[in-house]
Specification:
By secondary structure, the chain is an all-alpha fold. Helix content is 65%, strand content 2%. Helix 8 crosses helix 9.
């Protein structure tokens, strides 16, 4: 009888304890979004009940709608976080065409609200918000597939300009200057991140500035907003009514605020308190400390989004994660900048907080895609670690013992 080899049986319980648990989700990003979403519902409830009554509805009308849209957005977020983002390629063209049809439907229905036709289905859906998400997704796939042709004007710059021109032009006709500018800006950022040449980027930037200036000068709305913005920079007292009331709310809030639900400006003429001006309500009710916490949470989203982009499995994932996180941060930055008069008035919503189903749903869908990319990056790293661990274990890390070599006996039989 040959000598029996000593084999240490694997203990699944011990191995599970020794192996570090790697969650397949980005916890800081998820916590930041959940905090903003819950806080946003609280602030919509505080800012909207008087506004709801002014519309002839129940005091909780806007809040109830926001809760329903939040549930729709959460479902979209969970679905997109679980679905492999590469599968979106199959619906890219229908998604883009559907968005264009919705933008055309806005112009055809011509449901004018607050001086602009931006919605369908009785004001429930704003396709301009969905167009931002669709533009990021489509351009990310398109730029990733055209990587070797980006710096060829015929195959890179001109086709991308056509895509942005159609989307931005249809949004501009509503008119929604801020949304159209956001679409163009996001396209330029994605082109830069994909590796476009500086000379082309500078050319696009200059062309966009010239066209934007001409549009603003021709548009009565844009001209008025730019004029009031420039006057406000020279003398805050001459700023627009919206900015003056917003600044009043910030001053009344002080460092620590007057308390949730106790703001006065939302009752005395602060324009559209639940939507465009909700950051002013936040500053008044929670003070500069509360406003700074909100800004910090958006910085967390930007940080985690760019971090996920740097670790993405492929360039497509990098473009998607970077584009989506930058979009959410830019939207927030513009909304907060308007309140304190740093940028001209724009209709950008405060993501996850402002009342409005389209922006909330689109933002949560974008977060779902970022979480999807983070999950796939984590799975790839785990597979690499398992492969590396298997190599190491084969080299003798079995409880401190080497795996005995088989020995050949007489007649080259193998003894165990």
């Amino acid at each position: 009888m040959g000598e029996g080899t000593f084999v240490k049986e694997a203990n699944p319980v011990t191995n599970a304890i020794q192996r570090p648990i790697r969650l397949r989700i980005d916890i800081p990003l998820l916590l930041a979004v959940i905090t903003l979403l819950v806080f946003g519902l609280l602030m919509v409830y505080s800012a909207s009940w008087d506004y709801s009554r002014s519309l002839g509805q129940a005091p909780t009308y806007i809040f109830d709608r926001q809760v329903r849209w939040a549930l729709v957005g959460i479902i979209a977020c969970v679905f997109l976080a679980a679905l492999d983002y590469h599968h979106i390629r199959k619906i890219l063209v229908p998604m883009l065409l559907g968005t264009i049809l919705l933008l055309l439907a806005v112009l055809w229905i011509n449901d004018v609200r607050l001086g602009a036709a931006r919605s369908v289905l009785g004001g429930s859906v704003q396709p301009s918000e969905l167009s931002k998400l669709a533009t990021i997704i489509y351009l990310s796939f398109w730029l990733a597939s055209k990587q070797n042709q980006l710096n060829n004007i015929s195959f890179g710059l001109i086709p991308m300009g056509a895509i942005l021109g159609v989307m931005g032009g249809l949004v501009l006709l509503q008119p929604d200057i801020s949304a159209a500018a956001t679409v163009i800006l996001l396209g330029a950022i994605l082109f830069f991140l994909a590796g476009g040449e500086w000379r082309q980027i500078i050319f696009v930037a200059l062309a966009a500035l010239v066209v934007g200036y001409l549009v603003v000068k021709v548009s009565s709305t844009g001209n008025a907003r730019l004029g009031s913005y420039l006057m406000g920079l020279r003398d805050p007292i001459q700023a627009s009514y919206h900015v003056r009331r917003s600044m009043e709310a910030v001053v009344q809030g002080g460092w620590f605020g007057v308390g949730i639900g106790r703001a006065e400006t939302k009752f005395t003429g602060l324009p559209v308190a639940p939507t465009d001006s909700i950051f002013a309500v936040i500053a008044e009710e929670t003070g500069l400390i509360g406003a700074a916490c909100v800004i910090f949470l958006y910085l967390v989203i930007l940080w985690r989004g760019l971090k996920i982009a740097s670790r993405a499995p492929d360039q497509l994932g990098s473009l998607l994660a970077a584009g989506l996180s930058l979009w959410i941060f830019i939207e927030a930055l513009i909304n907060m900048g308007v309140i304190v008069g740093l940028v001209p008035f724009a209709g950008n919503a405060l993501p996850f907080i402002s009342a409005g189903g389209s922006n909330l749903t689109a933002s949560l869908a974008g977060i779902g895609l970022i979480l999807n990319i983070a999950r796939q990056s984590s799975e790839r790293i785990s597979k690499e670690e398992r492969g590396f661990g298997a190599v190491v274990n084969m080299r003798g890390r079995d409880g401190g013992r080497r795996i005995p070599r088989t020995r050949r006996g007489p007649g080259f039989g193998i003894r165990s």
